[in-house]
Amino acid sequence: MRHLLSTKGLTRDEAVMILDVAEDMADVAGREVKKLPALRGKTVVNLFFEDSTRTRISFEAAAKRLSADVINFSAKGSSVSKGESLKDTAQTLAAMGADAVVVRHQASGAPSVLAQSGWIDAGIVNAGDGTHEHPTQALLDAFTIRRRLHGASARGRDLDGVTVTIVGDILHSRVARSNVWLLTTLGARVHLVAPATLVPLGVGDWPVSVGYDLDDAIAGRPDVVMMLRIQAERMNAAFFPNAREYARQWGLGDERLALLPAASLVMHPGPMNRGLEISAQAADSARSTVLEQVANGVSIRMAVLYLLLSGASEGLG
Ligand code: NCD
User: Fold this and answer.
1) Is the CB of residue 6 below 6 angstroms from any atom belonging to ligand 1?
2) pTM (two decimals)
3) Model confidence over 263-310: pLDDT tens digits?
4) What's the rounded Cα separation, in Å, for the pair 169 and 62?
5) Span from the CA of 72 to the centroid of ligand 1 (angstroms)
């Protein structure tokens, strides 16, 4: 694997392999000494042009647990805010000897541009580009589902027959897109629920079913309900009447939570708008995997950095 730009291009076997390596990494996280020497002498740069809390610190923790050196580069307060281009930034990082660049950018496609540009000869990991993709988030979500469903016997398995309902701001969500490709590749059946204004054009070509009524979806007893954040920062128009109306129609509130089967998982990539797309009770319930998703994110990112930088899987992706 040279780069990780999207989940769309991953085969089932590649995806299962990444999840299995992440299981090995999770074993390390359970030890008293959480560190492996695998990436000693390698340099990982976190290049973040957009705000992030958990994704950035997750990649940082992952790289450090593999003994890589980590440089955090955030566009705020750097020469990027003085107008330095992506090209100049990439060439600067190349001159510093970066082996991998983890990039988050507001423009869809920016990580692919970096990977194809020849400006820098490093492994590129997409940590979220515009509304396009967020592959490590989908991988950690798939990992979380597989672990909850299969526990200690998760290794080697896919998500055949698992039903996943993704709810909310699909239009602006790179998390939804990466999950649609990955979960369906792994054999899951994905159903999307959103107000019509937040369903992307072209969704008819996606391997999913689409509905507009969350109560109907819950009556279908999905194995997993994944709530998405309302991405107000990407909205330049009124996509729904008001927050109260949104919560009433499309939020996972206490009453809907009570109707969901006890074994169904409640997921959210964070950051959560409590009281809008998810109630506090739903977010904090035993069915919620929100904090497991964060913990599993470190294992997934360790697996991805390891596969990219250790030369363990040349020829993939
Ligand atoms: C997501 C993102 O940035 O795309 N968050 C994350 O990575 N944990 C989802 C979001 O911002 O809503």
Assistant:
1) no
2) 0.96
3) 999 999 999 999 999 999 999 999 999 999 999 999 999 999 999 999
4) 29
5) 18
